[in-house]
């Protein structure tokens, strides 16, 4: 009887334990599946979900016609999970055929060999990558196999169906035209980080917004089918359009490179401007950088020197003084002065013309023709320093351009109260101040455009991924001198070309040319001037219907005539511009102005 009760008690206890256990399990199951399901699901997802950045593409840089100057090539990084190469005894199964029914066992060593055959590595090299990663971290889940492979290589690797092999896109900047406009485009460093030029100044337009997706994977690192979720779509960068013409830019770079080499010059610059719009259609510099291989070029020539390296322009700025005289009513092209070859207007001030001559009764037109420092100063002295300074500023001197680059130098123009007596005279013929070649081109653009200065531009627009177009602000057009003054200046500048020695070097059959030479000393950095010169020519064509300005500068020639090199640079660039834009020949007739040589 006692044994029966004892057995029954034990059965009751066991049953109670089972019932209680079942209740606990049921409660826990209810909690997991119902009460805490969402929270636990998120925790589990967090442990196995893998977030992936979807890189946006950096936008293109194109020329005025849409030709690509800078773009983004999509490359790919090949990577693996070291720890997962050891899962399953270092082997995995993959489909043996396209149907995917039969499978074949593949060892990690076999996979290493297959990968290496495609990437150009040995199986041993890849195994070393794995071993090194696991030695550093036994749970290592990441190591690079090969970086920046092309799409063909990626496709072949994906076809291997190796579960622990993964890929990331890796964008690289590419410049299909090499050094063409390299000085303007700039370049990008690692990870497409902008370093200079338009790449840097227009980075906000070119940079896109990365997207994001995630997928879930199992313990073996393999993505679970159907688990990919895009949480943020990628938005690619915009397209920056420049004002330059790719083909003309290439031609002008060839021209300036050839002339610099021919005369052994230190550097050369060559700029072409559309008179009516202020657009820079070519900005050529010798030794322009190739953004694809920045280190191969001269490091001093990586920047856009046409915007950041001002120099004293010399006699090309006599045009400003002459325009100020005519516009203010202080002189006309026929106003005369008895011009000696050397002049001492006051104590401690002396300057001379570039050649010896007796006192000549030159008109203002004659002074421009002979590029007389003395003559332009004698007539220019009719204007007070403040007035002359105001005209210089109105022509854009001493003011930074806003063409679209990150840095654009203002040049050097001290206010009149900081001029010493010599400088007060020197500024009348382009010494004692400095400007970039783009600023100098702006002076002649103003004269050719009827006296209205249109600020220069090299960046035309940014077109976003959504098609929206934004145009940068380059400044307002301003009237600097009257249309009548500009017309008088055009006549004098054409007279300089037609009657001067330069005619044989710059003349283009069928086209009337106007312009002015400049030969300028440059500061030596020690309070004095160098013994060599920068030679320039600023020309306008056609003179009867002005459409383009070309300015060329050749610095410090050592084995030839820098003045002639500047003239030839203009001539060749003007011919190239005529061909590029199909400019019709001149139809009007040149009118000769009295110079004073007739007397």
Automatic annotation (TrEMBL):
GO function terms (MF aspect): penicillin binding
GO annotation (BP), single: cell wall organization
Matches recorded under InterPro entries: Beta-lactam/transpept, Beta-lactam/transpept-like, PBP_dimer, PBP_dimer_sf, PCN-bd_Tpept
Keyword entries, A-Z: Membrane, Transmembrane, Transmembrane helix
Residues annotated as transmembrane: 12-30
Keyword Transmembrane helix: yes
Pfam families: PBP_dimer, Transpeptidase
Localization (cell): Membrane
Chief localisation class: membrane
Domain Penicillin-binding protein transpeptidase: 269-565
Family: Belongs to the transpeptidase family.
Record protein name field: Penicillin-binding protein 2
